[in-house]
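Email to the structure team, subject: Ionic transporter y4hA model.

Hi all, the expression group asked for a predicted structure before they design truncation constructs. Nothing fancy, just the tokens so they can compare against earlier work. One-line instruction: predict Ionic transporter y4hA, return tokens.
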Amino acid sequence: MPRPTWTTVTPILAALLLAATWGRHPGGVVVVLVALFLIGAVLAAVHHAEVVAHRVGEPLGSLVLAVAVTVIEVALIVTLMVTADKDVSGLARDTVFAAVMISVNGIVGLSLLVSALKHHLAVFNPEGTGSALATVVTLAAVCLVLPSFTTSQPGPVFTGAQLTFAAVASLVLYGMFVFTQTIRHRDFFLPVDRAGDTIKPTDHVDLDDDGHADPPDNRTTALSAGLLVVSLVAVVGLAKIVSPTIEDGVAALGFPNAVVGVVIALLVLLPESIAAVRAAAREKVQVSLNLAFGSAMASIGLTIPTIAVASIWLDGPLALGLDNVQMVLLFMTVVVGILTVVPGRAKPLQGGVHLVLLAAFIFLTIAP
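Reply from the structure team: attached below.
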């Protein structure tokens, strides 16, 4: 029997720690221990996601991590909305918007910057990336912008019929994109070389640069898939455990409570961020962009329909509409994203522009 590695043991220990601390408010040494296992679970999640991705190939591999993280993120949002004592009418909106900004500006910007600095230019397929960006923009407009302009109900909220339409439209659009990405036009979402030609995956391609050309066997893949789920549950759960400590720190600094949501979103998206940067460093920028836009798309396309169903049992309004500052940041993100995607290649400057937009979002959340 092979000796257990840290990537096998860490998710299990993190899950046990989550079970032992769930529903409590630990302090001191326990919080530090939770934070350490949170980081370990993030690194383990990245490892197991890459194993699964190596087996199933791109672009399905990128979809695995994006959807897995988003499903658990949605479960966390619904749990908080059901159990919270304070006003949570804007929780879904704030969380989804933070995830979109972190994905489209943070993950994209960092990936482009790393690849362009290391390889002179970051090269990707504009056809696949452009369709992903278009889908994200449409989902964001329908679910997060339109509620601020509809007049059937006061406030940035949808009526029941409008929310149902947005939920159904989100699911349909997300389903169409997944079909396009994984079946109909799969080649558009595969990495490309410096000449712009698609790099076809084969059984002898070392996708994770680990020195082993052959993909893992079914048993190893199944084990990694299971440990990936355990790792992601631990990441989200442990992030929730440390959130009271984060809330206390945010309050002590005099920052708005919305900053807590940004910090939690950063923690939850950390596995995807690390995986994307590692792919970019290996000159597989398309994999990074698949992860980034896939995360943003899944955050809207899966969260809004789930919240729409959950709102049947939730009391109070569901505020989905963005405020003026958020809409300006979204508009700038869309314009910059289009200019980045169209050429199919990017210099370090483009990565820096996206990162500045993320910094503006975080700063204006702290100092609105």
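The radius of gyration is 20 Å. The chain has a mean pLDDT of 83. Ping us if the truncation boundaries need rechecking.
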